[in-house]
Model the fold of this input.
Amino acid sequence: MVLPIDKDLDRFKKIVRGRVRKDLKKYMGSDEMLGRQGRKVVSIPIPEIHIPRFKYGKNEQGGVGQGEGEQGDAVGQEAGDQPGEHMLEAEVSLEELAEILAEELELPRIEPRGHKEVSSAKSKYTGISMVGPESLRHNRRTYRQALKRQIAAGAYNPDKPVIIPIREDRRYRSFETEHEPSSAAVILYMMDVSGSMGQKQKDIVRLETFWIDTWLRHNYRNIETRFIIHDAAAREVDRDTFFRTKESGGTLISTAYKVAIQILEADYPAADWNIYLFQFSDGDNWSGSDTRTCMKLLEDKLLPVANMFGYGQVDSDYGSGQFYTDLQENYGKDERVILSRIPDRDAIMDSIRELLGKGR
Done:
């Protein structure tokens, strides 16, 4: 039986989902939402919807329609000189966010490529038992059993159909835990933290990686994430360091590629893992010779093992942006390489569509 409160909750969820979808571009560029991120849900601030209602005052005059004012005037409102908007927070699961993202951006479902299988536990209802916790009681089976007993005992009156289950009538769902194989994936994020990459640029990277993570985790049950930062040297760091490191130094992009190769060769054989590589930079590399080294490392080591290599270039007042052009000249027709420009936060949505739109 569906209770009225369940219908109201389902309707509210649809309203929230519609609002999130309508304003998805705004949320994709909002730091506020990231600050509310939990383990499996995100609390999203949405404008509060008030139900119109009359406010009763003192009953000082009798009759209907008495008092000052003309037909069509607002009831019970006083003028103010400041606009106001109340907000409420609605929890949306990361799974729902991924589905909204897929619908709005028309993202195709990813077909896992690697053969790495990791067992994940899954509870499955397999039958009916005479014992169990009350939370798993099967009401329909319980009342059916009570009806059978009352009919057999001659205690059932069709004119007054009252069915009262006793302890022996109770039936419970039984379940068992199964371990099913699921594909595994790894994401390597590489970010330039040299002097030309300021906080504005890193905030854009932070937001874009959140949405990339959300989508890939929707497609894989088992996923690992690794982070690399570089200026003239590169190193692996944890998630917090990846986003909070202060900018400094020159830029040698090849150093990040070399660390990525070391990580993949040590921990993620291509035959077993789905490998996703994402690099973010303002496109300013130290020299043409290092750029040629980057292209060689991509060709020989990274592209042969990766599902995809995505390059997102953020605008910077100090970066030349040349690396985007270099990649386009060398790999513009290579389906494994996807390039995207991200001039500001408003471009994050289009960038996500470009990077994930082929569903590799």
About this structure: The chain has three domains: 1-50+87-106, 119-178, 184-356.
